[in-house]
Amino acid sequence: MTASCTFLFIMLSLFLCNYQSDKSINKTVVAINYNLSEPDKIYILPNALKEVSGIAEADASSIACIQDEKGIVFIYDLVKEQVKKEYPFHNSGDFEGIARVDKTIYILRSDGILFGIENYESAASATKSYATGIPAKDNEGLCFDRQGNRLLIAPKNNYTTDSHKKHNRMIYAFDLTSKKMIETPAFVFDLKKIKKFASENKIKVPMKKDNKGDKKEIDIEFRPSEIAIHPLTNKLYVLSGMERLLFVFNMNGEIEYIQKLDPDLFSQPEGITFMNNGDMLISNDVKNNKPALLRFNYIRK
Questions:
Q1: Which residue has better confidence, 211 or 31?
Q2: Confidence grade of residue 132 (pLDDT, cut at 50, 70, 90)
Q3: Predicted structure pTM score
Q4: Which phi and psi angles does 18 have, rounded to 5°?
Q5: Measuring CA to CA, which residue among 274, 263, 269, 266 is closest to residue 296?
Q6: What is the CA radius of gyration of the chain?
Q7: Per-residue pLDDT tens for 146-160?
Q8: Residue 30: which of 237, 239, 276, 217 has the closest Cα?
Q9: Is the dihedral of CA 206, 210, 211, 214 positive or negative?
Q10: What string of DSSP letters covers 57-73?
Q11: In degrees rounded to 5, what are phi and psi of residue 118?
Q12: What are phi and psi of 27, to 5 degrees?
């Protein structure tokens, strides 16, 4: 073999190795079947929902909304594009998450208190409250896990002072049969693994300079503003509103997808939910600080 042939063989081998490596990395990023750069529909919400903090599917054509200062559940009609019902359940407070379980709507207050409006559509509806005892004080994410018959609750901040756990982020579970919290967290996310995933897959995420100020490193805090489980794929979606990041995990807690959200579209994303057909809704502020819902149709392949 001539020297030139040997050189070409080596270069081709290196190219194939790099190609296979890149190919294996790209396979780890699971497509989520949404075009997040172009909403299929934008619903401008009334001023009563200016501080909308959580949303949940109510039926095939409406969603339940919670406003973070008023103890009222608003049912918003997606066809008529207006609020069609209001269900008061408590006085003022810092209400952050909402989830529907059959005929009961659950609302999460930031201090971890759960409110359940049983038979919410009935004149004989009743509201009960549950003290979860979550150690975190700033809880925002709430969703129904149908397969586990539980509510998942996500604190916004990392509350632990244990240096060995400072890179961990927890999601807790409230058992709907016993109406009690499960002591062991449902998910424990390792922030180091999330950052490694973003780095290995070359995902565009916030960056910051290291302590020496001469090298950039990934800047992900992972502060959930809302969570939801996809009705068709059973994946856990976590919206970190302050960072404008969307994370997708499988139910083993393994990271599968991260996307940086366009600030022109997502000025302040706070809530996320899915319709039964897979369409995704994200509550958000739009231009001139108008509250809005962005709808992204599920793309079937």
A1: 31
A2: very high
A3: 0.87
A4: -65, -40
A5: 274
A6: 22
A7: 999 999 999 998 766
A8: 237
A9: negative
A10: EEETTEEEEEETTSSEE
A11: -80, 140
A12: -65, -25
Q: Across-strand partners of 203?
A: none
The 10 Å CB-count burial string (b at 16+, else e) for 103-140 is ebbbbbbbebbbbbbbebeeeeeebeebebebebeebb
The arithmetic mean of pLDDT across residues 9-32, rounded, is 47
DSSP codes joined into one string, 109-132: ETTSEEEEEETTTSTT-EEEEEE-
Query: What does the pLDDT look like over 224-264, one tens digit per residue?
Result: 999 999 999 999 999 999 899 999 999 999 999 999 999 98
pLDDT over 50 at 27, yes or no: no
Rounded to the nearest angstrom, the gap between the alpha carbon of residue 149 and the centroid of all alpha carbons in its chain is: 19
DSSP element (H, E) containing 9 = helix 3-27
In DSSP terms, which residues pair with 174 in a beta bridge?
A: 151, 181
Residue 105's φ and ψ, nearest 5 degrees, are -110, 130
Cα torsion 260, 263, 264, 269: sign: positive
Residue 84's H or E segment, with its range, is strand 82-88
DSSP 164: G
Q: Are 225 and 269 in contact (CB under 8 A)?
A: yes
**Token pair 């408590």: residue:** 90
What confidence score (pLDDT) does residue 88 get?
A: 95
Buried b (16+ CB within 10 A) or exposed e, 238-266: bbbbebbbbbbbeeeeebbbbbbbeeebb
